[in-house]
Amino acid sequence: MTSSFGSWPSPFTAAQIAQAAPRIDGALFVGDEIWWGESVPSEGGRITVRSSTGAEILPAPWNARSRVHEYGGGSWTADDEGTLFFVDGSDQRVYRMPSSGDPEPLTAPGAAYGGLRAQQGRLLAVREDLRPQPHRRAIVEIPVDGSAAADDDAVRVVVSTTGFVAHPALSPNGSRIAWVQWSTEHMPWELALLHVAPVNVAPVHGDAMMSVSTRAALQPEWVSDDELLYLDDPSGRWNLQRVRVDETAAAPTPVAPADADTGGGLWVLGNRWYRPLDNGRIVAVRTNGDDRIVQIGTDGNATQLDVPITAGASIDDVRGSRVLVSGAGATVGAGLWCLDLDRGTVTTVTGGADADLDWVPQARPVTFDGPHGPVHAFDYPPTNPDARAPHGELPPYIVMVHGGPTAHVSGAASTAYAYWTSRGVGVLDVNYGGSTGYGRAYRERLDGAWGVVDVDDVIAAARGLADAGLADPARIAIRGGSAGGWTVLSALVRGGTFGAGISRYGVADLRMLAAETHDFEARYLDGLVGPLPEAESVYIERSPLTHADRIDVPVLLEQGSEDRVVPPSQSEAIRDALAARGVPHEYVLFEGEGHGFRAAETIIASLETELRFLGRAFDFEPRLGA
After folding, report:
1. Residue 543 half-sphere exposure, CB side, CA atoms within 13 Å?
2. Residues of the chain whose pLDDT is less than 50?
């Protein structure tokens, strides 16, 4: 059939997208089973734990969700006997759930926990206590007998700091602990240290602590009682490093260095970019635009594994020659796979369904020339086997802007994007300067230039697409959430490129953000913009709210009522400024949602609202149903 772009009939409904490919949140070998965390959009986005036997381990209403550093991570773990340990989202206490029984609290109310790790019969966690100042975080050992459920003092503090900690790892003999630590003055991808200390000296103090010279350390893992692997980027790329830690720390040795990143922004506590195997081999993620899974042999040679994952890859667990890997791929949806390196087999555990490539476009890596250097992106063109546009018509496009901003997108089969492309609306996913996945130099392009480089790069990408004759230059929208929402609003202020904007819980006022944001990102803006009060004039000049009078195209603002990272006041300030000038706009507040939308009903309402909004902005009649 012939129909205008944007009005094509599509089999993808918003309800289907809300239920498609639940997010995998960690995986473990547990006895003879495989367990994994999985989001349940139909139950408010709660995280459950499921088994390869088909059983649901963690029943409703329990929700394995941590709020440490606001973004959480590492909210559950288990021992090999089938005991589940998890942080419940409602009270942030740690619970123990035996293989036959109900959850029992292990910690007292008041603090938040995350980064759970069961090792050598001990339960380690990162604890964040934001009660009266100073805010303190610690690596702790939690008694598994319930003795700390009513008395927080019974939780053993191993490391305590007013800064931040992550990735606790016990040595094989249980005598020493390694961890990553950074100060409140920096973000972990700027400067993070690797420390080692004896476990029996607790809390650890300076004299007992050994520091390894690092730049932005991640994920220490012991390979023997006196040797560690970890990630760092002294060369400008996060690569594996090996170091001996006897009486003192020796100089680290790179392991199979590559022009790719094994590592990324430490936003959540559960990230795993590699795993060592017992026989000396290592399985790792390498990211250079998209993800690849490699096996590094004892000779240091790396071999790419035949795994369908190209995006969001995580090396979740290893046992013998078996490896659990989660992610998504160019031709498959999000899922979890079990690799047997000795047998050369790859088995799908959950998800990972083959995409219908007649309807789901394969991402096309593209690079555009920008004023600050190359701009990397992934193009998802309109794709529908049953429809075509009138001769000579060019499609509308949405330029997607990821959050962070120190984050990354990779090309993968996406029904969420097929919701748009199957209707005749193209999608361009941009990794603007400041994104991870292309090395430190690309990441640091944004230093001091947030609101400049990111805006220049998305404009260059949009214009490059239009100049190539792939998009209608009058019908290019821009959409982003959080930091991506900031770039949306900033680009609309710049004007001249985008015909509409969709900001989801976006930043509008830098001074307001600095005053209201949470502790983890309290000094993030120092590097992205400049320190206050010295750079206050820059904060004012760059804030979209300052120049809201320059926005002259329709804007959709979406916001969660419980967002503590970017509070509703940010979106509401822009709403009020647009209303005062009569600029077409919509403001949608989703009750109960935080920083990111999780509930199925919210996802459905958001997608349908966005589609109708773009239809009005770009003069096409959208079809919401299948």
Report:
1. 22
2. none
